[in-house]
Amino acid sequence: MVRLSWLLLERVRNFRKLQTTRERLVARNAECLFAGDENIQVYSKLDGVPRLKNQYAIRLAKHGCPNRPFYHIVLAKTYDDRDTEIEQLGTYDPMPNINNEKLCALNFERIKYHIALGAYLTRPIRRLLGLSGFLPLDPTLLIFAENLRRRKAIEQKIKSKESEDSEEKTETEKEVD
Where is this region: Disordered (predicted)? Predict the structure, then answer.
């Protein structure tokens, strides 16, 4: 019974390693930069392009209260819990302040360093870095903005149509009187 549970634990550990590592393309002849790091594997598939597997991710770690969230931007291993961190790279406050601003503080030098080592960026971090001008804008943000513009245009058309209908009703009521 003990041996069976130990084997199961080993399978889960190996599965986690395979499941959570991310692939990144590496420039040719740059494999030597990652040679000494045991957390990074450089390999190439049949196409001959070197790829990078890394266990590190830059992601959000939640702090604060349930009704007042506050996030630390951290470097962590991808298979660790949400709040474990190796290094804190910034903070993000999603609740708007008096001036309707969401505050974000980032350490760009350390983020550049970890991206150069192949750290995976989660979607919220890609969005924040895109909005800050560090990376290109995330495509999902562009799609969201376009849909928002369409929705506002439709709402304006509906309001103008309703106002025209109400004007016609008042004109017909005046004619009846």
Answer: 156-177
Nearest to 118 by CA among 45, 27, 6: 27
Side-chain-side CA neighbours of residue 141 (13 Å): 14
151: left (phi > 0), else alpha (psi -120 to 50), else beta?
A: alpha
- Domain extent for 145: 138-177
Under 8 Å between Cβ of 162 and 155: no
pLDDT tens per residue across span 62-112: 999 989 999 999 999 887 777 778 999 999 999 999 999 999 999 999 999
Residues 132 and 142 in one domain: no
Domain count, the chain: 3
Query: For the whole prediction, is pTM greater than 0.70?
Result: no
